[in-house]
């Protein structure tokens, strides 16, 4: 069987023109049926299909195809494609071929599927966003489906990501995806790694590189060190790091390339935080997103249970919720009360200068110690770990040793004045896009808190933002760090700390245990703040080093 | 105010003296401010707050205001300002949101006077009222501006910008009650100090934060603003709407802007990132700074003119921990190093080129543009006597005309319009196109079409008359290369020359101007002129740059040039057929060589031996009989297309490509095809041949080309009743539930071509309107408008 003529072309499905999609679908249908026929004939002649090696290969290809169809039938923003691909799957099944089914339910392991917007029930604005995203990537990923809680942000996010990965830029396309893989692998985020491995191969990347960083060009290997420091201890970045990258003879980076790479690295570090923070499930068409096994009680998948979709589980949650309902109700009330108090008595008690300074130091020091008790070692999956070296290097190391984080004064180097200008100079338009994204994330509010309406949440948002920056040693002269202690309770701090610094350790328990009365959309909102604050912090350190190098 | 300052000047005695100098500070500076006596400067930063005396040769530290054992954030200054009325009064803005005033008259070591802790966020700017002794204004990151009366403990009034953060506040120098504030979202607001409830005026000045603003010291209502978008804009606020008068594009975000005293159009700027220099701009010359100070090694954070009436001393503080005094006469002037050149295309293809005259003079010896006609155009600058900055010494302007005897492209238009590209059998298309080409006198092209027909169609269909005709004009002989190109003549020709001199400073030479226009009309002469300008700003030292001599103008040889090259009478098919046993590669080589050879030998005479037409006929029959497949010729045809394209006749290349379609397409690589298509389409569009270009786009098979007319195909319409945009589907407006595009004649919805009058916006079906307007000249809708249909 010649592979060439059976090459499936998915591109046509991304078109906004329904007739183009129609032809593409028809094309796919024919290929699938042809392959099915072939498989059947092989089966009949051999009786035992698992014997033939070549057969296994073609079966593998077929399975991939079916998995992709499954994804389309669930996640394509175009209704016709969803219907037709479901139909194709069904007809394949009728021919006696085993078809896959999605594992787990919904895009997130933390958020029940019914809370998340269903594809097909979105409004016009969201549909436009989905269609854009689908047209650009050929898929609607789970991140998008979770972020769509906040469409205003999502739009800016997608625009930025699209620009970074696909539009004009100093780096070649496969480099961009590879850098994305490197960054995501730092946090052992197999979800992002898988996605970008596919994209990397799709844009013509060399599969050999995927065997590990040592197989990539020297130039990318040089970036490994920056990636490592940036992900875990950005305050250690010095202009020597930058110089090392820019002056490496034939492997040297240009300034524009470096800025592009830095933006990509920070983007994917923080996106890894989001992935873990919201418990994003594997994509349906990727490994771990689907299974060919028929559903059976004995084989019940863990994620099905932890997902809150199962009946039994739902009851557990309910009963648990009943117990703590008064407790957590009180939680919200107390938080609101505190905010009000802070608002009122701010002018009255005037803390001395030393007091203010020490509050920052205390918060910074304490933030090092805030960690969840279940500190069990997570060994990264093999296929992910090969993308980076030096697994032992992490945020954890220094927090145990209580390493001193130097203070970075935002009044001396801030994003709005300095970082923006530098990025926009070296990588035009991206500064603007990122600036917009920061703005939207920082100012996003619906003036609600759990069940309360018309609440000014700016104080709370600022506390979260500044707390994250505080963990990175970034200080705002005009902020009273005492507020953080008042507004953020311990379980919330644990969650923030984990998501930002060691995202791979986030568990559903952590996600559930903070802000129990708050809506899922609000928890996603918190995550947006976390990732943007983290990205800004990393960017500030990296850009400051570049500025220092340049002066 | 002005009066008072003048008094101050008088008091301060004779003119300031000093030199360019700098001193090292202990820490990076964030802002500086000058005392009104012009003898002291205060420097403030995160960990520095000192007063320096400016002496003749050096800065001398006079006072350290940063006292006390423990460093306090109250002393971490974002801004500092010295009162212009009271030598003892200073105010600082702290990064933690505190506004502090300082009284140098206090006997104790600590000069701190008052502390205002009303702002919740960093205070970005403080500003004293220019004439009022006790009024202080502050602008903060929290979005509020506060006005303090120093005799009271609290603020007098609070102004809310309804926005995130205030980056700058400045009292107007001329209007007692007015102040301007700039914001991070790009807005500028104008406030009346007596009305804290709402701003008087607000407009968006920049894209992104506006970091700074400065009122013009003399011109009432002029406000300069600088933003992160790298621009400095000058606004006239006296009119009803703030009007942008000037815009200077710098290379980095603008952190500070300060008008230069006594120079109406000058202002100084410094940047916050990347660029460490201080520039002084003439706002009317927004591209090249008038002066540049390059002393600092890190970004400049504060600039101040030393004295309100002395334009030559500039002080600056920087992150590199130095304080500098710059003397204007020591500044570097980028203008001097620039080679100003200008290039512009005229409406009829003329090319104007202006350059520094010395450059042109040097170059003219080499005669770089032989073959082109040069015309003189006088470059007359209106000199504004009030303008000190009149620019460069002298410049020369040359105008090149591409071709004499204009309108030579008419053949292109005719051909484009008359060619048939599709819709008929190949033979007919070829015949038609051959006829068109012949009628336009392009015999070679005509012949090519005929050849193509012979190659690709059955010869039996060729009408002998047609063939005779074309072959009769063709040539064929035993010479290996019989092509006779008379290409665009590149050799030097002859032309009359005139010489025109203009003496320097002769700004109004009417006679010369007349002269030039006369020569323009004759279209025969070639000259160059040099225009020179009067001495410029004494401060800029332009005088030295001028040379007091007459420039002999170089002359150019001009030769009349043929508007159109004689088309090569190429007869390759003939030659090919004469050979009995054709061998492909050989022909390929011949063909490939021929255009080069003939192209290089520009002065070749045309060889036009006559041959009998019968030979062709017989040969072509023979060819057919021997059943050479048309594929055999594809190499030749491909080369021919390349040849035409290289000759600049991309029209021919594309036309043949379309007409032959699949027959040749596969032989030519995609990229070349695409390149031809796009060039041809571009040409067509320049000649406004929209229909033809669209047809070409449609007929093209290249994906990249055929998608050209797929873009922006949407026509947005508004409902004719409620004037709101129509939704994409249906003919009924969603909002007012009425049919939108009704025919005024038959009152039905128009679903096809809709024609409407641009005067009264009524319209309807094309036929109906046409019919109606035949009988009546008034609008069918009865609105009384006299519609016209043309």
TrEMBL record, chain A:
The UniProt keyword set, sorted, is: Cytoplasm, Oxidoreductase
Localization of this protein: Cytoplasm
Domain of life according to the entry: Eukaryota
The cross-references to Pfam families, in alphabetical order and at most eight, read: PA26
Which is one Gene Ontology cellular component term of this protein?
A: fibrillar center
| Catalysed conversion reaction | a hydroperoxide + L-cysteinyl-[protein] = S-hydroxy-L-cysteinyl-[protein] + an alcohol
| TM ranges | none
Q: Which GO terms describe its biological process?
A: cellular oxidant detoxification; cellular response to glucose starvation; cellular response to L-leucine; cellular response to leucine starvation; negative regulation of cell growth; negative regulation of TORC1 signaling; positive regulation of macroautophagy; reactive oxygen species metabolic process
What one GO molecular function would you report for this record? oxidoreductase activity, acting on peroxide as acceptor
The entry sums up its family as follows: Belongs to the sestrin family.
Q: Read off the PANTHER family from this record.
A: P53 REGULATED PA26 NUCLEAR PROTEIN SESTRIN (PTHR12474), SESTRIN-1 (PTHR12474:SF3)
The name this protein goes by in its record: Sestrin-1 isoform X1
Which organism is this entry from? Mesocricetus auratus
Source taxonomy lineage?
Eukaryota, Metazoa, Chordata, Craniata, Vertebrata
Automatic annotation (TrEMBL), chain B:
SUPFAM superfamilies in UniProt: WD40 repeat-like
Signal sequence bounds:
none
Among the GO biological process terms of this entry, one is: TORC1 signaling
Localization (cell): Lysosome membrane
Keywords of the record? Autophagy, Lysosome, Membrane, Metal-binding, Repeat, Transferase, Ubl conjugation pathway, WD repeat, Zinc, Zinc-finger
Instruction: Cite the annotated pathway.
Output: Protein modification; protein ubiquitination
Under catalytic activity, the entry for this protein gives: S-ubiquitinyl-[E2 ubiquitin-conjugating enzyme]-L-cysteine + [acceptor protein]-L-lysine = [E2 ubiquitin-conjugating enzyme]-L-cysteine + N(6)-ubiquitinyl-[acceptor protein]-L-lysine
Role noted for this protein: Catalytic component of the GATOR2 complex, a multiprotein complex that acts as an activator of the amino acid-sensing branch of the mTORC1 signaling pathway. The GATOR2 complex indirectly activates mTORC1 through the inhibition of the GATOR1 subcomplex. GATOR2 probably acts as an E3 ubiquitin-protein ligase toward GATOR1. In the presence of abundant amino acids, the GATOR2 complex mediates ubiquitination of the NPRL2 core component of the GATOR1 complex, leading to GATOR1 inactivation. In the absence of amino acids, GATOR2 is inhibited, activating the GATOR1 complex.
What's the family? Answer: Belongs to the WD repeat WDR24 family.
How is the quaternary structure described?
Component of the GATOR2 subcomplex, composed of MIOS, SEC13, SEH1L, WDR24 and WDR59. The GATOR2 complex interacts with CASTOR1 and CASTOR2; the interaction is negatively regulated by arginine. The GATOR2 complex interacts with SESN1, SESN2 and SESN3; the interaction is negatively regulated by amino acids. SESN1, SESN2 and SESN3 convey leucine availability via direct interaction with SEH1L and WDR24.
- Descriptive protein name: GATOR2 complex protein WDR24
């Amino acid at each position: 069987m010649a592979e060439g003529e059976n090459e499936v072309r998915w591109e046509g499905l991304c078109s906004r023109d329904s007739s183009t999609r129609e032809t593409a679908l028809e094309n796919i249908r024919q290929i699938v049926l042809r392959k099915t026929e072939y498989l059947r004939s092989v089966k009949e002649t051999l009786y035992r299909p698992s014997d033939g090696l070549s057969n296994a290969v073609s079966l593998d290809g077929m399975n991939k195809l079916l998995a992709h169809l499954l994804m389309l039938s669930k996640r394509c923003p175009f209704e016709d494609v969803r219907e037709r691909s479901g139909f194709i799957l069904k007809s394949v099944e009728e021919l006696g071929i085993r078809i896959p089914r999605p594992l787990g339910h919904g895009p997130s392991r933390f958020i029940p599927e019914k809370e998340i917007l269903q594809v097909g029930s979105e409004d016009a604005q969201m549909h436009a966003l989905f269609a854009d995203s689908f047209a650009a990537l050929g898929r609607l990923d789970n991140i998008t489906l979770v972020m769509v809680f906040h469409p205003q942000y999502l739009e800016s996010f997608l625009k930025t990501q699209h620009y970074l990965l696909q539009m004009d830029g100093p780096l070649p396309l496969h480099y961009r995806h590879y850098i994305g893989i490197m960054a995501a692998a730092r946090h052992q985020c197999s979800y992002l790694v898988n996605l970008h491995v596919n994209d990397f191969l799709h844009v013509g990347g060399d599969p050999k590189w995927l065997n590990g960083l040592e197989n990539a060009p020297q130039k990318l290997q040089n970036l490994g060190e920056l990636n490592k420091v940036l992900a875990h201890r950005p305050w250690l970045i010095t202009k020597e790091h930058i110089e090392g990258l820019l002056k490496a003879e034939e492997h040297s980076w240009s300034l524009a390339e470096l800025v592009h790479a830095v933006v990509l690295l920070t983007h994917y570090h923080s996106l890894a935080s989001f992935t873990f923070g919201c418990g994003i499930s594997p994509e349906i068409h990727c490994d771990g997103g689907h299974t060919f096994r028929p559903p059976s009680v004995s084989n019940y998948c863990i994620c099905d249970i932890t997902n809150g979709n199962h009946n039994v589980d739902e009851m557990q949650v309910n009963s648990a919720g009943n117990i703590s309902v008064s407790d957590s109700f009180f939680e919200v009330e107390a938080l609101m009360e505190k905010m009000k108090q802070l608002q009122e008595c701010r002018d009255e008690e005037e803390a001395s200068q030393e007091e203010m300074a020490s509050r920052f130091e205390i918060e910074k020091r304490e933030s090092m110690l805030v960690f969840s008790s279940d500190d069990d070692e997570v060994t990264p999956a093999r296929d992910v770990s090969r993308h980076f070296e030096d697994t032992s290097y992490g945020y954890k190391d220094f927090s145990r040793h209580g390493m001193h984080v130097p203070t970075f004064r935002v009044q001396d180097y801030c994003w709005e004045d300095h970082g923006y200008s530098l990025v926009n100079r070296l990588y035009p338009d991206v500064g603007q896009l990122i600036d917009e994204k920061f703005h939207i994330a920082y100012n996003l509010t619906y003036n609600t808190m759990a069940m309360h309406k018309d609440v000014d949440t700016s104080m709370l948002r600022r506390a979260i933002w500044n707390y994250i920056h505080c963990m990175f040693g970034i200080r705002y002269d005009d902020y009273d760090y005492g507020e953080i202690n008042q507004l953020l309770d311990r379980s919330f701090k644990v969650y923030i700390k984990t998501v930002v610094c060691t995202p791979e350790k986030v568990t559903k328990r952590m996600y559930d245990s903070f802000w129990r009365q708050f809506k899922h959309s609000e928890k996603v909102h918190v995550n947006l703040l976390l990732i943007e604050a983290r990205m800004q912090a990393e960017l500030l350190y990296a850009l400051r080093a570049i500025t220092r190098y340049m002066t | 105010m002005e009066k008072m300052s003048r008094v101050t000047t008088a008091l301060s005695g004779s003119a300031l003296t000093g030199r360019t100098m700098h001193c090292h500070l202990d820490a990076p500076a964030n802002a500086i401010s000058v005392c009104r006596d012009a003898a002291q400067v205060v420097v403030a930063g995160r960990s520095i707050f000192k007063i320096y005396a400016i002496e003749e040769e050096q800065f001398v530290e006079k006072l350290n205001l940063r006292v006390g054992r423990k460093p306090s954030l109250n002393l971490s200054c974002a801004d500092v300002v010295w009162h212009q009325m009271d030598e003892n009064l200073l105010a600082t803005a702290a990064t933690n949101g505190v506004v502090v005033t300082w009284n140098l008259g206090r006997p104790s070591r600590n000069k701190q006077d008052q502390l205002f802790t009303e702002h919740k966020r960093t205070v970005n700017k403080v500003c004293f009222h220019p004439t009022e002794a006790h009024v202080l204004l502050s602008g903060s990151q929290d979005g509020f501006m506060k006005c303090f009366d120093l005799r009271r403990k609290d603020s007098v009034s609070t102004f809310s910008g309804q926005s995130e953060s205030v980056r700058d506040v400045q009292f107007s120098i001329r209007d007692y009650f007015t102040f301007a504030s700039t914001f991070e979202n790009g807005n500028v607001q104008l406030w009346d100090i007596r009305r804290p409830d709402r701003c008087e005026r607000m407009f968006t000045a920049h894209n992104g934060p506006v970091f700074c603003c400065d009122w013009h010291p003399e011109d009432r209502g002029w406000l300069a603003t600088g933003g992160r978008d790298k621009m400095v804009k000058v606004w006239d606020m006296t009119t009803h709407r703030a009007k942008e008068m000037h815009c200077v594009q710098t290379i980095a975000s603008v952190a500070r802007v300060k008008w230069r005293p006594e120079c109406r159009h000058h202002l100084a700027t410094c940047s916050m990132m990347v660029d460490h220099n201080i520039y002084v701009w003439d706002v009317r010359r927004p591209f090249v700074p008038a002066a540049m100070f390059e002393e600092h090694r890190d970004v400049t954070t504060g600039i101040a003119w030393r004295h309100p009436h002395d334009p030559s001393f500039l002080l600056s503080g920087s992150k590199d921990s130095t304080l500098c005094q710059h003397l204007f006469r020591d500044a570097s002037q980028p203008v001097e190093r620039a080679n100003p050149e200008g290039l512009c295309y005229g409406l009829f293809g003329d090319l104007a080129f202006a350059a520094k005259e010395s450059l042109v003079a040097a170059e003219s010896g080499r005669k770089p543009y032989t073959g082109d006609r040069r015309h003189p155009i006088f470059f007359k600058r209106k000199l504004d006597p009030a303008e000190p900055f009149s620019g460069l010494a002298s410049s020369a302007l040359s105008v090149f005309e591409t071709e004499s005897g204009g309108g030579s492209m008419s053949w292109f238009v005719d051909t484009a319009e008359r060619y048939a590209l599709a819709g008929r059998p190949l033979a007919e298309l070829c015949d038609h196109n051959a006829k068109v080409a012949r009628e336009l006198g392009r015999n070679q092209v005509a012949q090519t079409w005929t050849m193509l027909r012979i190659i690709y169609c059955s010869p039996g269909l060729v009408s002998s008359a047609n063939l005779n005709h074309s072959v009769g004009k063709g040539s064929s002989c035993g010479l290996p290369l019989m092509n006779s190109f008379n290409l665009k003549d590149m050799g030097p020709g002859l032309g009359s020359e005139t010489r025109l001199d203009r003496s320097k400073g002769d700004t109004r030479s009417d006679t010369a101007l007349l002269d030039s226009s006369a020569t323009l009309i004759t279209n025969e002469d070639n000259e160059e002129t040099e225009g020179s300008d009067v001495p410029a700003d004494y401060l800029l030292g332009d005088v030295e740059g001028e040379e007091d001599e007459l420039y002999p103008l170089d002359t150019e040889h001009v030769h009349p040039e043929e508007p159109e090259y004689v088309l090569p009478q190429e007869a390759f098919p003939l030659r090919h057929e004469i050979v009995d046993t054709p061998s492909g590669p050989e022909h390929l080589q011949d063909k490939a060589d021929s255009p080069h050879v003939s192209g290089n030998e520009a002065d070749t005479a045309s060889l036009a031996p006559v041959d009998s037409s019968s030979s062709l006929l017989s040969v072509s029959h023979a060819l057919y009989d021997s059943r050479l497949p048309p594929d055999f010729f594809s190499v030749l045809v491909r080369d021919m297309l390349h040849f035409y394209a290289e000759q600049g006749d991309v029209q021919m290349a594309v036309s043949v490509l379309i007409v032959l379609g699949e027959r040749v397409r596969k032989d030519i690589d995609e990229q070349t095809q695409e390149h031809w298509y796009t060039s041809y389409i571009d040409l067509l569009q320049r000649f406004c041949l929209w229909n033809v270009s669209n047809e070409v786009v449609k007929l093209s098979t290249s994906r990249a080309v055929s998608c050209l007319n797929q873009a922006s195909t949407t026509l947005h319409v508004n409902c004719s009743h409620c004037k709101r945009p129509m939704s994409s589907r249906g003919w009924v407006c969603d909002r007012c539930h009425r049919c939108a595009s009704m025919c005024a004649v038959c009152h039905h919805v128009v679903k096809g071509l809709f024609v409407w009058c641009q005067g009264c916006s009524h319209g309807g079906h094309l036929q109906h309107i046409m019919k109606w307007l035949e009988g009546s000249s008034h609008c069918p809708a009865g609105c009384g408008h006299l519609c016209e249909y043309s």
